[in-house]
UniProtKB/TrEMBL annotation:
<dbReference type="InterPro" id="IPR011059">
    <property type="entry name" value="Metal-dep_hydrolase_composite"/>
</dbReference>
<feature type="domain" description="Amidohydrolase 3">
    <location>
        <begin position="54"/>
        <end position="536"/>
    </location>
</feature>
<dbReference type="Pfam" id="PF07969">
    <property type="entry name" value="Amidohydro_3"/>
</dbReference>
<dbReference type="InterPro" id="IPR033932">
    <property type="entry name" value="YtcJ-like"/>
</dbReference>
<dbReference type="InterPro" id="IPR032466">
    <property type="entry name" value="Metal_Hydrolase"/>
</dbReference>
<protein>
    <submittedName>
        <fullName>Amidohydrolase</fullName>
        <ecNumber>3.5.-.-</ecNumber>
    </submittedName>
</protein>
<dbReference type="InterPro" id="IPR013108">
    <property type="entry name" value="Amidohydro_3"/>
</dbReference>
<dbReference type="GO" id="GO:0016787">
    <property type="term" value="F:hydrolase activity"/>
</dbReference>
<keyword id="KW-0378">Hydrolase</keyword>
Length: 541
C-alpha cells in the first residue's frame, strides 16, 4: 500500500476478505470514480488487473464499509485528545495531581480545559472541590466537565468571569454545576479557545477518527453545546481538507431553529436538543425518583415544545431530533411527535426520519411508538459497557431493577426501530469495534444483538439515519467509503446459538466478521478510504 489514492483513480483490491452482501465469499473489489464498481472472487479479479491504475494486495486483510459514528462533538473530542483527560484517573487524588501537572505545563492558556472525571468510579465517591482546584491551578480559570458533559467543576477564577452565575439554576455552592449555571460557565470557558486552537482540535479529532476506520461522523452542535463559529468552522475545514465526512446537526428549537439550521448548513435541527440531562448528573428526567436522590431530574422541554419543533422541521423538510435519556423524557418525545403526526400526517413524519439521541430508558410502549412514528434511535452501546451491570452507575442511580431495563437494543431491533450507533465522544471514546462488541455482549442478558446487527447499526445505520439507503455497504454503486483491517479469522457471533450455528454454515451465505469476544484483541485499522480518497494509512503500510 503506497501513496494516497485520489478518487478519480481506478483501484483493484485483491487477495483479502471483502465484507459485502453482494458476494459473501468476495476476496476482491474495484473502486472507480469514488464508488464501488465491482465486488467478487479472486479468479474474476484477473480480468480487471490490466485496466486499473493501482492494484492493492490485501495480503489476507479484511475490507469492510467504513464506520459511521452517529453522535460526536468534534471540537470537544479534539480538545480532550490534546488537553487534560481525566477518564483514566483512578481516584480523586490522582485527578488533582493530573490537574496540577497540566496547569504547570500550560502557563499560556487563558482557560484550562479538562474532561472525563467520574466520581462514581473513585474510592472517594465525590467530585473535586473548588478550593482543591484553586490550589491545584494556582488560582487560574479551569473548566472540568464530568464524563457525561452534563455537569462540571470549575475554579473560582472561572466563576468570577461569569456575572450572575451564582444566581442561575443549577448553582449550589460546593456542588458540581448543572443546568443554566453549567451552560454559562461552559460558554465562558470555550469562548477562551482561540480559532487556531479550535481548528487544531478539530483536525486532531478527525485524524483520530480516520485512524479507527471511521469514514463519517455526525456532529451534534448547538447554541448550548458549542457555537455557530465552531460549527461553520468545522464544516469549512472538512470541505477544504481530506478526511472523514461530517454531517452537521444544529440543536435549536422551533421556527428559529429551522431557520438557523438552514443558515448554518446543517442537515437538521436535531442532535442534542435537550429534553433532559443525564443519569450520572441526576438530570435525566424520570417518572419515579432516583434511588440515590429525592427528585426526578430535570425537564427542559415538554410535549408541546416537541410537537412544535417536529411540526416546523417536517414542514420545512428537515430532520428534527432530541436528546432524551430518562423514561419521562422519552415519553415526552413520543407524545410530542405523535401530536405533530396528528397535525401534519403520520406518513410525512415517518418519511422525515426524525431522531432520538441516547433513548436509554425505554418501555415496550415507547419502543412500539418509535416504530410507529419512524423514529431512529441514535444510541451509544459503550454507555452500557461503562455504566451498566448490577453494581454500575446506573444501578447506583436507579436501583438494580430499573437499571436492567436500560439500552434494550434487541427489543428495539425486534420492533423494527432503525438503530444508528455512536460514541457521544468525548463522553465515551471513538472506538467502533469496541462499540460493536458492547452491543453484542450487553451487560444485561437479553438486550444484546448479534455482531452482524451491531456492525450494520454502526455502518449502514448511520447512513440511513441521514436518509441515505444507498451507502454504508460495499456493493456496486455505493460510495467507496471503506476500511482495511488486520484481524484474526472471521466468525459469525449471535446471542442465539442456533442462529450462530446456521450462520456459520456456508449454505447460509453469511459473511463473517472479526471475533469480538471480550478480552480478545480488536481489529487494527490499516487504511481508511472516503469517497475513493485515502484519508488514513497505518504505519508501515
Amino acid at each position: 500500500m503506497n501513496e494516497r489514492t485520489a478518487p478519480s483513480r481506478t483501484v483493484l483490491l485483491r487477495r483479502g476478505e471483502v465484507h459485502s452482501p453482494a458476494d459473501p465469499f468476495a476476496t476482491a473489489m474495484v473502486v472507480e470514480r469514488g464508488q464501488v464498481a465491482w465486488v467478487g472472487s479472486e479468479g474474476a479479479a484477473d480480468a480487471f488487473a490490466e485496466g486499473v491504475d493501482e492494484v492493492i494486495d490485501l495480503d489476507g486483510a479484511l475490507v469492510t464499509p467504513a464506520f459511521t459514528d452517529a453522535h460526536v462533538h468534534t471540537t470537544s473530542t479534539g480538545l480532550a485528545l490534546t488537553g487534560l483527560d481525566l477518564s483514566g484517573a483512578p481516584s480523586l487524588t490522582a485527578a488533582l495531581a493530573l490537574v496540577r501537572d497540566f496547569a504547570a505545563a500550560r502557563p499560556a492558556d487563558r482557560v484550562l480545559l479538562g474532561h472525563g472525571w467520574d466520581a462514581a468510579r473513585w474510592p472517594e465517591r465525590r467530585a473535586p472541590r473548588r478550593d482543591e482546584l484553586d490550589e491545584a491551578t494556582g488560582g487560574r480559570p479551569l473548566y472540568l466537565s464530568r464524563i457525561d458533559v452534563h455537569s462540571a467543576v470549575v475554579t473560582t477564577a472561572l466563576l468570577d468571569r461569569v456575572p450572575g452565575v451564582r444566581d442561575k439554576a443549577g448553582f449550589t455552592d460546593g456542588e458540581p454545576l448543572t443546568r443554566d449555571a453549567h451552560h454559562a460557565v461552559r460558554a465562558a470557558a470555550f469562548a477562551a479557545v482561540t480559532p487556531a486552537q479550535r481548528t487544531e482540535a478539530q483536525r486532531a479529532a478527525l485524524a483520530h477518527a480516520a485512524s479507527l476506520g471511521i469514514g463519517s461522523v455526525h456532529e451534534c452542535a448547538g447554541p448550548e453545546i458549542s457555537s455557530e463559529d465552531d460549527f461553520t468552522g468545522l464544516l469549512r475545514l472538512v470541505a477544504e481538507e481530506p478526511g472523514p465526512r461530517v454531517v452537521g446537526y444544529w440543536a435549536e428549537g422551533g421556527e428559529e431553529g429551522v431557520a438557523k439550521a438552514r443558515e448554518l448548513g446543517a442537515l437538521g435541527a436535531a442532535g442534542d436538543l435537550f429534553v433532559d440531562g443525564s443519569i450520572g448528573s441526576h438530570t435525566a428526567c424520570l417518572h419515579e425518583p432516583y434511588a440515590d436522590a429525592g427528585h426526578t431530574g430535570t425537564a427542559y422541554l415538554d410535549a408541546v415544545d416537541v410537537a412544535a419543533h417536529v411540526t416546523a422541521c417536517t414542514e420545512a423538510g428537515l430532520q428534527a431530533g432530541f436528546h432524551a435519556i430518562g423514561d419521562a423524557a422519552v415519553t415526552t418525545v413520543v407524545e410530542g411527535v405523535r401530536a405533530a403526526a396528528d397535525k401534519v400526517g403520520l406518513a410525512r413524519v415517518r418519511a422525515a426520519r426524525h431522531r432520538v439521541e441516547h433513548a436509554e430508558m425505554l418501555t415496550p410502549e415507547t419502543i412500539a411508538a418509535f416504530a410507529e412514528l419512524g423514529l431512529t434511535a441514535s444510541v451509544q452501546p459503550a454507555f452500557d459497557a461503562l455504566w451498566g451491570g448490577e453494581d454500575g452507575m446506573y444501578a447506583q442511580r436507579l436501583g438494580a431493577g430499573r437499571a436492567r431495563t436500560l439500552n434494550p437494543f434487541a427489543a428495539l431491533l425486534r420492533a423494527g426501530v432503525p438503530l444508528a450507533f455512536g460514541s457521544d465522544s468525548p463522553v465515551t471514546p471513538l472506538d467502533p469495534w469496541g462499540t460493536v462488541r458492547a452491543a453484542a455482549f450487553h451487560r444485561t442478558p437479553g438486550h444484546g444483538v448479534s455482531v452482524r446487527a451491531a456492525f450494520t447499526a454502526h455502518t449502514r445505520g448511520g447512513w440511513r439515519a441521514i436518509g441515505r439507503d444507498d451507502a454504508g455497504v460495499l456493493v456496486p454503486g455505493a460510495p467507496a467509503d471503506y476500511a482495511v483491517w488486520r484481524t484474526d479469522a472471521l466468525v459469525v457471533q449471535a446471542p442465539d446459538d442456533r442462529v450462530a450455528r446456521w450462520s456459520t454454515d456456508p449454505r447460509s451465505g453469511t459473511p463473517g466478521l472479526p471475533d469480538l469476544t471480550p478480552g480478545g484483541d480488536l481489529p487494527v485499522c490499516l487504511r481508511t478510504v472516503v469517497g475513493g480518497r485515502t484519508v488514513f494509512v497505518g504505519p508501515g503500510e
